[in-house]
Write a structure and sequence with these properties.
- By secondary structure, the protein is mainly α.
- It folds into 2 domains: about 90 residues, Tyrosine recombinase, N-terminal domain (DNA polymerase, domain 1); about 140 residues, Orthogonal Bundle (hpI Integrase, Chain A).
- Helices cover about 50% and strands about 5% of the residues.
- It is built from 12 helices and 3 strands; from the N terminus they run H-H-H-H-H-H-H-E-E-E-H-H-H-H-H.
- The protein has a 3-stranded antiparallel beta sheet with strand order 1-2-3, covered by helices on one side.
- Helix 10 crosses helix 12 and helix 11 crosses helix 12.
- The longest helix has 22 residues.
- The termini are far apart.
Length: about 325
């Protein structure tokens, strides 16, 4: 019988026990558990459709599973993520004595293209920020949002989730809540401070405050939409794209709020920032995640060198 890969009824009790363990023992966040559940539903559904289950699946069948995922058009990064989830599941089953062997132990990983982030140049960032013209509430909000994203390297979800008490204006510090609700304090510079001051002046945020708040949380939101609600991630994306087009950057870059995060990290390393400091600022759990920006900086260095040094190019 062919099984529906998205049918929640296919989820075995072993998977539910594993997910409960990930919450109680590993403290995984709700979004992470949701992703694991989706990936494991796909996996156990495929097993059922192919006459296997968690207690009998072999390494050869797992190879078939990975191959089928790629053949169905799933991106290598998504396949690798799903493979990581089922590796953890099978290790859990061995630990719990529900299997004596781990069929994923000899399974090769999925190669994921190491696409380097493409940051804006410092000149391009200046052009983007200079494209925000005007003193109306929306313009002040947009300027403050973009300055804060670039000035702190914050994720867009972290910026949109900011409440009034998360900003220390005297100390120029912002409290950000990253993945897994992990808290960190990040400094911001003069340009971001001035933009935030303008946003909180009478002609700024107060101009978007509604007669009555729809949600109690909105009243504390740092960034508001034009209807007086908390600014959403989607709206923040639209803000960046609007000024990216105005600055003529859209044709050369796939603009997203994450590009400003990449740009912040790359420019700090370009100017000699310590890698550990950048790691702490961005909220990376592993230093290896931050190290990708050192490669970006090296690539930019070589590009400038090749273009500028008379002896860098082969003689013609």
């Amino acid at each position: 019988m062919k099984a529906d890969l998205d049918d929640a009824d296919l989820v075995p009790i072993e998977v539910e026990e594993f997910l409960s363990w990930m919450v109680s023992e590993r403290g995984r966040a709700a979004n992470t558990i949701s992703n694991y559940r989706r990936d494991l539903i796909g996996y156990t559904g495929w097993l059922a459709a192919n006459g296997a289950d968690l207690s009998t699946v072999t390494t050869e069948q797992l190879v078939d599973f990975v191959t089928a995922r790629g053949a169905a058009g799933m991106a290598p990064r998504s396949v690798a993520r799903q493979l990581a989830a089922l590796r953890m599941l099978h290790r859990f089953l061995v630990t719990e004595g529900q299997r004596t062997d781990d069929p994923t132990a000899e399974l090769e990983g999925v190669k994921v293209p190491s696409g380097l982030p493409k940051p804006l140049s410092e000149t391009e960032v200046e052009a983007l920020l200079d494209a925000v013209i005007g003193t109306d509430p929306a313009a002040r909000r947009d300027r403050a949002l973009l300055e804060l994203l670039y000035g702190t390297g914050a994720r867009v979800s972290e910026a949109c989730g900011l409440s009034m008490g998360d900003i220390d204006f005297d100390g120029r510090l912002v409290r950000l809540f990253g993945k897994g609700s992990k808290e960190r304090l990040v400094p911001f510079g003069r340009a971001a401070a001035e933009a935030l001051d303008e946003w909180f002046e009478p002609g700024g945020r107060l101009g978007l405050v509604p007669a009555q708040w729809r949600r109690r949380d909105d009243a504390q939101a740092v960034f508001l939409n034009t209807r007086g609600g908390r600014l959403t991630r989607q709206a923040a994306w639209a803000v960046l794209r609007k000024y990216g087009e105005r600055a003529g950057l859209s044709a050369r870059h796939q603009l997203s709020p994450h590009v400003l995060r990449h740009s912040c990290a790359t420019h700090m390393l370009d100017h000699g920032a310590d890698l550990r400091v950048v790691q702490e600022m961005l909220g990376h759990v592993s230093i290896s995640t931050t190290q990708i920006y050192t490669k970006v900086s090296q690539e930019r260095l070589w590009q400038v060198y090749r273009n500028a040094h008379p002896r860098a190019r082969a003689a013609v």
